[in-house]
Amino acid sequence: MERMLYDFLKKPILPFFLLVLLLSLAHDASPKTLEPTPSTRHHFVLVHGSCHGGWSWYKLVRLLRSSGHEVTALDLAASGVDPRQASSLKSISDYFEPLTELMMSLNSSQRVVLVGHSLGGLAISQAMERFPRKISVAVFVTAPMPGPSLNVSILNNESLRRSGPVLDSRYTYDNGPNNPPTTFIFGPIHLATRVYQLSPIEDWTLAATLMRPLRLFSDKDMSREIALSEERYGTVSKVFIQSEGDRLTPNDLVEWMLERNPPNEVLKIKGSDHMVMMSRPLELCSHLLNVSRKYS
């Protein structure tokens, strides 16, 4: 034992201390993440798409919060863990109610970065009309973006006309087979091939497990409840984020929509599917942070 201790003490220990010193210098030289000050800290409100819930933003919630920002990823009515059933919703405004309640709870000095994915674009559009002074910027992530000169029912019908096959997705006809469908839910094959085709398989598995039926509303109801004006909706800055690999919202539909309702800015993400927050979360987070700074 004494011989082993003697041999150890004979070995040069300078390299060890040199290694510690180098590691310390490398740590000190590494870039620091600056915590936002109160004036640069933003509140992101994330609104999910059809059949999904606030859970679909789990990657973005972590990234944005780790950057020092406040994040709310809410469940719209009859979505996520919201206890209501789709059949109980009588109007699209009922579906938007959780977002409306959140916006009403903000005081007059609070302004949020409002982010809508997919069908969530309709929810944030109504919020822009009702609460324009409480929104610093609205971000449409591969989402329908109606406007004062683009009626929501026209946009919806154009989207349906250009959409591909629904595959194993299902409609229900609670008012009889001769009347319009009342709910819709994505099937796992539809999700895998047209919605999550570039996302990790774990995210597709999660989605297939957590899907909930979407209540479908009439064109008349949507046109009445999402009536948008230049005087209110038009005063809010809006940014559109386009996913170049989106099979659910094809690029030709996006271009058609943007021509009729141009946003302040269009950003593009390559290598992403419809679920941009799943397939390219870092790129989406970077865009959201840049947008929040630019339009604050």
Give me some keywords for this one.
MES/HNL, 296 residues, single chain, 9 strands, methyl jasmonate esterase activity, signal, disordered N terminus, Salicylic acid-binding protein 2-like, Rossmann fold, 3-stranded antiparallel beta sheet, methyl salicylate esterase activity
Structural topology:
Blueprint (H helix, E strand, L loop, with lengths): L1 H9 L3 H16 L13 E5 L10 H9 L3 E5 L17 H4 L1 H9 L6 E6 L2 H11 L4 E7 L10 H11 L7 E3 L10 E3 L2 H8 L5 H10 L3 E2 L3 H7 L12 E6 L7 H10 L4 E5 L6 H4 L1 H14 L2
Parallel strand pairs: 1-2, 1-3, 3-4, 4-8, 8-9
Antiparallel strand pairs: 5-6, 6-7
Helix pairs in contact: 3-13
Protein name: Salicylic acid-binding protein 2-like
GO molecular function: methyl indole-3-acetate esterase activity; methyl jasmonate esterase activity; methyl salicylate esterase activity
Pfam families: Abhydrolase_6 (PF12697)
